[in-house]
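Slide 14.
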Amino acid sequence: MKTLVIISVLFGICCGGSEAQVQNPFVIGNSFRVENPAASGTKRIESQFRIARLKYSGGGDWYNDPTEEPNVLKFAHDHAGIDVDPKYEFTEISNDNFFSYPFIFMTGHGNISFSDYEVQRLRSYLSHGGFLYADDDYGMDKSFRREIKKVFPDQELVELPFSYGLYHCLYDFPNGVPKTHSWDENPPKPPQGLGIFYKGRLVVFYTSESNVSDGWDDPEVHHDPEAKRQEALRFGANILVWALTQ
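Slide 15: predicted structure.
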């Protein structure tokens, strides 16, 4: 592991509200819930780094596996010194709080659809300091490529070389994106890490044929070997560090 400590991260985006809120508690199963800090009385520390899950239209299960973000945030705190708020939160591109999140994460198995307004707003977010990480959970590849092309019609998703800094900024991944899960592949397809750059800054990072975010889940969700899960968490920490320091 590289020696890198990031303490009390302040990552400002040029517009949007100062406090991210969830309109209603979001309950999954019997044990996991997202709370509105204002409603619960919990004081929100605005300097803490947080991730928002993107709720998108089109029918895809944008909400799946809600333990992913808290776990990767906790790992980044413990191993990279990032001051985080390790909660599962979600937002929509049209929400007032969308610009208050420095890091947007999206995943799922199905279709994605952005309205014209959402395309314009996402483009503004990404060109003014925001970062989008998308992980294909085997099923959203076609629609993600189609919709992100609307956001940056003059650019292509390009495969990042194994020498790219994201793969080495905290932990070394000499072969790029790790393969966490496969889906009916014989032989397995190689994982890919692709990106879109704006003025030299990586603003969209997309992992395909990897499903690395599944490795962030609680161990009992997918029953992955612990070494595979730790590999996924290390790679997730690299993504967070790169988004903050590139």
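Speaker note: The radius of gyration is 17 Å.
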